[in-house]
Amino acid sequence: MKLLSTKIHGVLDYITAFLLLAMPYMLNYDIGAIAGRIFIILGVAAILYSLITKYEFGLLNVIPMGLHLTLDVVSGIVLAASPWLFGFQDKEFLPHLIIGLFEIVVALLTTVKTNYDS
Q1: CA dist., res. 72 & res. 31, Å (int)
Q2: In this structure, is residue 99 part of a structural domain?
Q3: Torsions phi, psi for 110 (to 5 deg)
Q4: Would you say residue 113 lies in a domain?
Q5: Is there a domain that residue 115 lies in?
Q6: How confident is the model at residue 2 (pLDDT cuts 50, 70, 90)?
Q7: Closest CA relative to residue 23, chosen from 109, 87, 101, 98
Q8: Number of structural domains in the chain
Q9: What pLDDT is attached to residue 61?
Q10: Is this prediction's pTM over 0.90?
Q11: CA-to-CA distance for 75 and 90, rounded, in angstroms?
Protein backbone atom coordinates (compact mmCIF):
# COMPACT_ATOMS: atom_id res chain seq x y z
CA MET A 1 0.00 0.00 0.00
CA LYS A 2 1.37 3.37 -1.04
CA LEU A 3 0.69 6.07 1.54
CA LEU A 4 2.50 9.14 0.23
CA SER A 5 1.54 11.29 -2.73
CA THR A 6 4.20 12.76 -4.97
CA LYS A 7 3.33 16.16 -3.53
CA ILE A 8 4.16 15.04 0.02
CA HIS A 9 7.20 13.19 -1.30
CA GLY A 10 8.43 16.37 -2.97
CA VAL A 11 8.23 18.34 0.26
CA LEU A 12 10.11 15.54 2.05
CA ASP A 13 12.71 15.50 -0.76
CA TYR A 14 13.76 19.08 -0.21
CA ILE A 15 13.56 18.90 3.59
CA THR A 16 15.73 15.77 3.54
CA ALA A 17 18.19 17.26 1.06
CA PHE A 18 18.70 20.38 3.16
CA LEU A 19 18.94 18.25 6.30
CA LEU A 20 21.67 16.22 4.60
CA LEU A 21 23.52 19.42 3.76
CA ALA A 22 23.18 20.67 7.34
CA MET A 23 24.13 17.42 9.13
CA PRO A 24 27.93 17.83 9.02
CA TYR A 25 27.60 21.26 10.59
CA MET A 26 24.99 20.16 13.13
CA LEU A 27 27.17 17.24 14.22
CA ASN A 28 30.50 19.11 13.96
CA TYR A 29 31.84 16.73 11.31
CA ASP A 30 34.85 17.61 9.24
CA ILE A 31 33.39 18.10 5.75
CA GLY A 32 36.73 17.01 4.34
CA ALA A 33 36.30 13.58 5.95
CA ILE A 34 34.03 11.02 4.30
CA ALA A 35 31.61 10.89 7.26
CA GLY A 36 30.74 14.53 6.61
CA ARG A 37 31.32 14.61 2.87
CA ILE A 38 28.83 11.82 2.17
CA PHE A 39 26.02 13.98 3.58
CA ILE A 40 27.02 16.88 1.31
CA ILE A 41 27.35 14.71 -1.80
CA LEU A 42 24.00 13.00 -1.32
CA GLY A 43 22.27 16.25 -0.34
CA VAL A 44 23.43 18.01 -3.50
CA ALA A 45 22.50 14.96 -5.60
CA ALA A 46 19.01 14.86 -4.07
CA ILE A 47 18.41 18.52 -4.88
CA LEU A 48 19.64 18.09 -8.44
CA TYR A 49 17.59 15.02 -9.29
CA SER A 50 14.53 16.47 -7.52
CA LEU A 51 14.76 19.58 -9.68
CA ILE A 52 14.69 17.48 -12.87
CA THR A 53 11.94 15.05 -11.78
CA LYS A 54 8.51 15.00 -13.42
CA TYR A 55 6.49 15.89 -10.32
CA GLU A 56 4.99 18.87 -8.56
CA PHE A 57 8.35 20.15 -7.29
CA GLY A 58 10.45 19.52 -10.40
CA LEU A 59 11.52 22.45 -12.52
CA LEU A 60 12.67 20.69 -15.68
CA ASN A 61 10.44 17.58 -15.67
CA VAL A 62 13.04 15.31 -17.28
CA ILE A 63 13.15 12.07 -15.29
CA PRO A 64 10.07 10.00 -14.38
CA MET A 65 9.01 9.57 -10.78
CA GLY A 66 9.88 5.87 -10.86
CA LEU A 67 13.53 6.68 -11.60
CA HIS A 68 13.50 9.36 -8.92
CA LEU A 69 12.29 6.80 -6.36
CA THR A 70 15.00 4.39 -7.46
CA LEU A 71 17.60 7.12 -6.93
CA ASP A 72 16.14 7.76 -3.47
CA VAL A 73 16.48 4.08 -2.56
CA VAL A 74 20.06 3.93 -3.88
CA SER A 75 20.93 7.11 -1.99
CA GLY A 76 19.38 5.70 1.17
CA ILE A 77 21.29 2.44 0.84
CA VAL A 78 24.58 4.26 0.26
CA LEU A 79 23.98 6.60 3.20
CA ALA A 80 22.86 3.85 5.58
CA ALA A 81 25.78 1.60 4.63
CA SER A 82 28.39 4.37 4.37
CA PRO A 83 29.83 3.96 7.89
CA TRP A 84 30.68 0.34 7.09
CA LEU A 85 31.56 0.96 3.43
CA PHE A 86 34.03 3.70 4.32
CA GLY A 87 35.19 2.40 7.69
CA PHE A 88 34.03 5.04 10.14
CA GLN A 89 31.43 2.90 11.94
CA ASP A 90 33.47 2.93 15.16
CA LYS A 91 33.24 6.73 15.33
CA GLU A 92 29.69 7.41 14.17
CA PHE A 93 27.00 5.51 12.33
CA LEU A 94 23.55 6.32 13.72
CA PRO A 95 22.79 9.57 11.80
CA HIS A 96 23.82 7.96 8.51
CA LEU A 97 21.81 4.82 9.21
CA ILE A 98 18.65 6.61 10.38
CA ILE A 99 18.47 9.14 7.54
CA GLY A 100 19.38 6.48 4.97
CA LEU A 101 16.60 4.17 6.19
CA PHE A 102 14.20 7.13 6.21
CA GLU A 103 14.98 7.80 2.53
CA ILE A 104 14.33 4.16 1.65
CA VAL A 105 11.03 3.97 3.55
CA VAL A 106 9.73 7.24 2.06
CA ALA A 107 10.56 6.02 -1.46
CA LEU A 108 8.85 2.68 -0.88
CA LEU A 109 5.72 4.36 0.50
CA THR A 110 5.34 6.84 -2.38
CA THR A 111 2.80 6.40 -5.16
CA VAL A 112 4.54 6.09 -8.52
CA LYS A 113 1.66 6.97 -10.84
CA THR A 114 1.26 10.68 -11.39
CA ASN A 115 -0.07 12.85 -14.14
CA TYR A 116 3.57 13.90 -14.66
CA ASP A 117 4.70 10.45 -15.86
CA SER A 118 4.58 9.90 -19.56
Answers
A1: 22
A2: yes
A3: -95, 135
A4: no
A5: no
A6: confident
A7: 98
A8: 1
A9: 92
A10: yes
A11: 22
